[in-house]
Amino acid sequence: MQEESSRRGGDLTHISEVLADSGSSSPDLTKPVKEKRTEDCTCGQCGQPFQGEVTYYPRWPKSKPSRPTECPSCAAKRKAREAEELEVERESQRVVLREQWRRATGMPVELLAKTFDNFEKQYQRTAFKIAHDWAKDFDLNSPGGYPSLFFYSDTPGVGKGHLMSGIVNYVLDNWKGNPERTRCPIRFESGPSLVRRIRATYNIRKEDDTHEREDEVYRALAGVPLLLLDDVGKETPSRFTRETYWYIIAERVNSGLPVLISSRRPLEGDN
C-alpha cells in the first residue's frame, strides 16, 4: 500500500491540514459577506489624509480590507482627465467619419467645396441668414420635428445650391455624435437624376435581384435624417414627376423628418 501511494505522488494529506498550513480557514457563514466603515485613509497621489470608505470581509477574518487609494479630489481630476482623453480620441474618429460621410452624401465634389464662409452674403443676406440659422439649430442626432426649407428662385446661379452645400458642411463639421455610427445620415439627390433613377426600376425583371427596386429607393429617402433635393422641377413636368416628389415629401413630413428643396419653379402652379 505504501508503494502504491508513493507511485501516486506520496501520502495523502487531509484537506484541513492543507488549509491550516496555507493560513486559510473555512468562512464563518453567520457573518455578513461585506462590511463598510468610514476610516482615515491616505491618498496615494497627493499624500493627503482623507475620510474614505473601507470594505471588510467578516467571513474571512484573515483577508485584507479594501481601502481607497485616492482622495475625492484626485479621483475627480483623474476621471476628468480620462474623459478628456476619451473625447480627444472620439473627436479624431469623428474627423475621419465626417469626411467619409461628406463623400457619401451624393453631393457633387464641386458643390461640396461651397461653404457658408465663401458665400457672397451681400447679394443674398436674407437667404443666407435663414440657411445659417437653420444649420446652427439642426441636430443630426435628433432630426425629428425639425422644419423643412424651400429655396426658390426662377433665376439660375443665385446661390441655392451653395446654401444647401453650406448647410451640409456646417452640420457635418459641428456633429458631435457617436463615431461608431457608420451609415451616412445625409443624402443629396438631384431632382432629374432621382426621377431617372426611379423610372429605371420599372424595367427590372422580377428575377433580377442585382438592381434596386422602387420601394428601396423610396425607403432610403424616407428614412435618412436629412434629405436634400436639388433642382426639383428642372425636368419636363409630368404627372409622374409630380407624384414622385410629393410622395417623397409626404413621407418625410409624416415621419417628422426635414427635407431641403431647391427649385426654379414655385411650389404651387399648373406645372
UniProtKB/TrEMBL annotation:
Chain intervals with Basic and acidic residues compositional bias: 1-11
GO biological process terms, semicolon-separated: DNA replication
Gene3D superfamilies the UniProt entry points to: P-loop containing nucleotide triphosphate hydrolases
Stretches the record annotates as Disordered: 1-39
InterPro entries on file: P-loop_NTPase
Matches recorded under PANTHER family: ATP-BINDING PROTEIN RV3427C IN INSERTION SEQUENCE-RELATED (PTHR30050:SF4), CHROMOSOMAL REPLICATION INITIATOR PROTEIN DNAA (PTHR30050)
Name this protein carries in UniProt: Uncharacterized protein
